[in-house]
Amino acid sequence: MTILKVDSVSAGYVPESNILHDLSLELNEGEIVSVIGPNGAGKSTLLKTIFGLLKPKSGKIQLKNEVISGLKPFRIAQKGVSYVPQVNNVFPSLTIQENLEMGAFIRSDDYSDTMEEVYTLFPVLKERKNQKAGQLSGGQRQMVAMGRALMLKPEVLLLDEPSAGLAPIFVSSIFDKIKEINATGVSIIIVEQNAKEALKMSHRGYVLAMGQNVLDDKSDALLANEEVGRLYLGG
Amino acid sequence: MEFSGISSYVVSLAIMAGIYAVFCLGLNIQWGYTGLFNIGIAGFFCIGAYTSAMITTPMPSGIYAQYVHQIFGLNLPFVFGLMGAAIVCGVVALLIGIPTLRLGEDYLAIATLGIAETIRLIFNNEQWLANGPRGLMDMPQPFHSVVSPQNYNYIYLIITVIAMVIIYFAIEKAIRSPWGRVLRAIREDEGSASMSGKDVFNFKMQSLIFGSMVMGIGGALYAHYTKAISPSVFTPLYGTFIIWVMLMAGGSGNNKGAILGAYVIWGIWVGTKFVTDFLPYTLQSRAPYIRFLIIGILLEVILIYRPQGLLGEEKKISKLLD
Amino acid sequence: MIELIVYGIVLGSIIALGAIGLTMVYRIVGFANFAHGEFMTGGAYVALFVVTILLPWIGFPDSRFVPLSFGWRMVIAFPIAMAVVAILAIALDKILYKKLRAKKSGPVILAMASLGASFIIRMTILIIWGSDYIFYRPGLMRPALDLPLSVKIRPDQIFIFCAAIFLVILLHLFLKRTKMGKAMRATADNTDLALVTGIDTERIIAWTWAIGGGLAAAGGVLYGIDVQLHPGMGWNFLIPIFAATILGSIGNIYGALIGGFVIGIAQQVSTAFLAPTYKLAVAFMIMILILLIRPQGIFGKE
Ligand SMILES: Nc1ncnc2c1ncn2[C@@H]1O[C@H](COP(=O)(O)OP(=O)(O)OP(=O)(O)O)[C@@H](O)[C@H]1O
Ligand SMILES: [Mg+2]
């Protein structure tokens, strides 16, 4: 069943010009979908638009048959979507624990169970829970950012380049964590530079260029596609 | 008699508004064209007035020397007073620009505010400099022997208007030059002005100095008009705030607007006096506060409902580029 | 000299109360609030109203905690003054700054609006109370205690220091322990991420004004207890609190606290060499010095 549907959306940062042109994308329940494409293709812009940070100028976005385009980010968050931005995605002067608490800001119920789950997923965060997020390494920060997003118990998780700037050993461990999160039933859209790795763990993939759909297919098919390989997967 | 009373009143009003228009023009260079947030106009006002006063008056001698102290007295003609005022204000602007123009725009604001307060304190406390709180008097007025004293203000009105017009055209010319175009580019977007930080700094500095020199001339014009200055004149209210309201009312980035704003707001300011005259006697002593309250509220209304002012900004730069 | 340093600490604790609020507003609301000094004045005069008009009117007994110069009336007036100014600050945001934010006006326009607000507040106070110097309790002898090292200090001044420290500790606990306090720190850290996390930033802004206004009011009342009240008092604090804010790095509350003490001590110690009226210029010179050698302040990163 489709959980999130982007339907011919055009959007941009200034009134005159659009970055996304007539873009469509679907995410099915339980899926991981990768979005790949060259720098400046509009991948981050797509996630921002889904999360309500940009308003689509045309087209619509649906979450489980409910139109969410035009809603404020915190409304969309309340409906079960979490978003991890590409950069500046932790509160540096807050401790790890406090970062996670902020993730649950809009929850009024008891979230200690969720926090335990996050700590189980990322044990290293529990060890350092009173350390300031600004002092962590890139990989650990990424874990804090994801943990913060998970505190909402989202049904849909939007990840913008979670492996950017990480050492190779951390890349695979982050990807393992993403698979673990997915296994708990969270549907995920992941934007990645490490396109090959991302496609390997995802069910389907979308190729974007200049703000438009170029191709979408099962991940295996994209990985096997020679042109995609040459243009976007680095050989 | 009645008529001449009114007309001399109107003339004095026009002179003060004209002097304020000079300040507005100076501020317009800084804020309107460059985006420099100077809230210490009173400091330049003060320095301009005192500098011109001391350039044009003789050193007190004889019995006066016991009562009046001033660091120098050159007894030079009025024009030298104006020039000296401009130069000294330019130097002060340079000094205040060095630590602040590289930083965010609000640092300049805080620094100019501080310098204005400090200047006032210095003139108030240092007797030897310019006679302390009692201030200076009897600044010479040019052409004062041409007409009878009660008609002198007509001459001074002409002088003020000439000064204002010359400054107006000087700024218009500068703003239409390539130099002015760069200023605008800096104000619009510092980053993409395709210039090094050093260039941006230099252009801002030039604008700050230019505007402050104009303010110095305004201060000089004031000193020779009132013929009596003391530190208590150059308060943030009369020396800074009202000038900002004038420029915002007229339209920043527009020299005609700067002049118009000065006349309109000065007119309103004087007009409110007629209103507060109707207040009961017990409230009369509070009248100036009520008038300033009105001016303060006026600024907020302008900022919210008509930030472009009466005339709005002239788009002269893009016209030239097309 | 030691005595001057002690007086400096007293003055510094008042400056710090202003600077902490200023630095929070600067970071979270995003502009230099030139009306912050008037929040201090406003607080002092609200307390004056409560102490000399409201409480006598309802027949609240006059008392005095000897050797301090005030009594129960001031104890009641103090929080009322803080609350009134907090509400005033929020109201100002709603009727003025929020409108400008909605129009996407830049920080300089907001700063200019705050300059206008400062004049409006000052003029209102002048209209109501006039321009006289006023004491909370006129005609009271206020003997000083003799401390070791030949330091003479009035009991009021010890109270001022303790009250300021108490408020700072309260603020510290609020920011570290409560959900709203943590959300405020998060917003100060990264407003965009706070928005993404679902934090309602307008609510955070209201809290920031309330805290900033309340602390400034407290500073004003304490200054009134220490010296006297005057409609220009807050304006004279503006340069020192900005100097303290910049010295302690904009946005850093503990920096503002330390900056407040540094500026206060420098101002008092300077009276050994300079006329006391130059205190304000001393704060200004320190600020210029910092801008020249370390514009990001002592706690700022390169
Ligand atoms: N805040 C912004 N304001 C204006 N334009 C922007 C903004 N952010 C991005 N852009 C522009 O939008 C286009 C798409 O940017 P986007 O960040 O979506 O690309 P991306 O595919 O995520 O690239 P990358 O791989 O570098 O992250 C680029 O041309 C960029 O310059
Ligand atoms: Mg991106």
Could you characterize what this model shows?
Chain A is α/β, with parallel strands linked by helices. Chain A has a single domain, classed as P-loop containing nucleotide triphosphate hydrolases (Rossmann fold, 3-Layer(aba) Sandwich). In chain A, 37% of the residues lie in helices and 25% in strands. Chain A contains ten helices and ten strands. Chain A has helices at residues 43-50, 73-78, 96-103, 112-121, 123-127, 138-150, 168-183, 195-201, 219-224, 226-232; strands at residues 2-11, 20-28, 32-36, 58-63, 66-67, 81-84, 156-160, 187-191, 204-209, 212-218. In chain A, the strands form two sheets. A six-stranded mixed β-sheet of chain A has the order 6-7-8-3-9-10, with helices on both faces. In chain A, strands 2-1-4-5 form a four-stranded antiparallel β-sheet, covered by helices on one side. In chain A, helix 7 links the parallel strand 7 (156-160) and strand 8. In chain A, helix 3 packs parallel to helix 6 (138-150). Chain A is globular. The termini of chain A are far apart. In chain A, 44% of the residues are buried. The mean pLDDT of chain A is 91. Chain B is mainly alpha-helical. Chain B has one domain (7-232). Chain B has 13 helices and two strands, in the order ααααααβαααβαααα. Chain B has a two-stranded antiparallel ribbon with strand order 1-2. Chain C has 302 residues and is mainly alpha-helical. Chain C has one domain (2-293). A two-stranded antiparallel sheet of chain C has the order 1-2. In chain C, helix 1 runs antiparallel to helix 10. Residues 13, 19, 37, 39-45, 86 of chain A line the site of adenosine-5'-triphosphate.
Structure characteristics:
heterotrimer; A: 235 residues; alpha/beta; Rossmann fold; six-stranded mixed sheet; four-stranded antiparallel sheet; 37% helix; 25% strand; globular; C: 302 residues; mainly alpha; two-stranded antiparallel ribbon; 11 helices; 72% helix; binds adenosine-5'-triphosphate; binds magnesium ion
